[in-house]
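thought: fold this chain, then report.
action: predict
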Amino acid sequence: MSNQDQQPPWGRKRRPQTPEEIVAQLIKKLQDMFSGQKKPPPPGDGEPPSKRTAPSPFSIISKVLILALVIIVLQGLYQSFFKVAPNEVGIVLRFGKYNRTSQPGLHLKIPYIEDLAKVNVRQIQKQEFGFRTRTPGQRTTFDNRGYDMESLMLTADKNVINVAWIVQYRVGDPFNYLFKIQDVKQAVHDLSETVTRRVVGNMDFDFVLSNRDLLAAEVRQELQEQLTFLEAGIDLVTVQFQDINPPDPVKPAFNEVNEADQDMKRLVNEAEETYNRVIPAARGNALKIVEEARGYATERVNNAVGETTRFLDILSEYENAPDVTRQRMYLETMQQVLPTVENIYMLDESQQGPLPLLNLRKESQSVQQGQ
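observation:
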């Protein structure tokens, strides 16, 4: 076992234990290096302090270079680590060229060679057209003065309309968002205004007023196609029209026209209601009369055919047996006629006048009715 191993612990030189102590000791050494102080020589060297030589310029330059090198190394170590937030992604560039995409978490990169750009991919960004939000909150206030150049548009029927809308979007492709277009926000603003003016310009005034949802859907689809074509790296969340009105100078005239249009629609609806109530009833009555006439004609024809067939049958029987047929016809006729006769008279050849026949059946019926 060596003498060094046998040296007691209190005789050893104390080493720094924590990073703070290491940094403090390093700073102290640098201070001693630049101040030119040296430890006092041990006794017995024989050289007096007055004869010590001053530090040379080369030693000072080397110390400065060492200090700069230490600073560069420390800064490189500090820049080697980076953290990406949960709502961000990191784009790492190596010598200015895209190298990789870092997901949320702690990562490592090569210092002085690789650069980092962070992009928030979950934040919803918004642009307003025709107005601006002054105080957001539960009682949000808006200001639309001074934004006529954005809101005033011309429709297909050559009418001027005031349109205010918002566009909400977020970053879909961080690489395209950073490097394909220099000013993405301005590009979204210009494209939104261009697409909206084109869509509104292809529609009539009344259609724009009454179909804002359809208008917003068409603007969103066309705007997303344009942004995708330009590789802007933007995904639209929504396009919503806040207010669609005629300009202030023509609002009174527009209200009068709107009232007249509503009156015309009301009268048309009332006329259609009367038409739908009267015309079907008349058509039904006409069909009823036609069907009754057809039924009556069919009945008369069938009766005539039946009577003709009956007459021909009787004629055939009469030709075969005239006396019997005649007698049967007489009895059938009397059977039908006598029940309807009220007074019956019997004529006798030996008497001069007729003899009335007492109708007992009729008398019994009258007595029963009186009771």
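thought: worth noting. Residues 1-11 have pLDDT under 50 and may be disordered.
final: tokens above.
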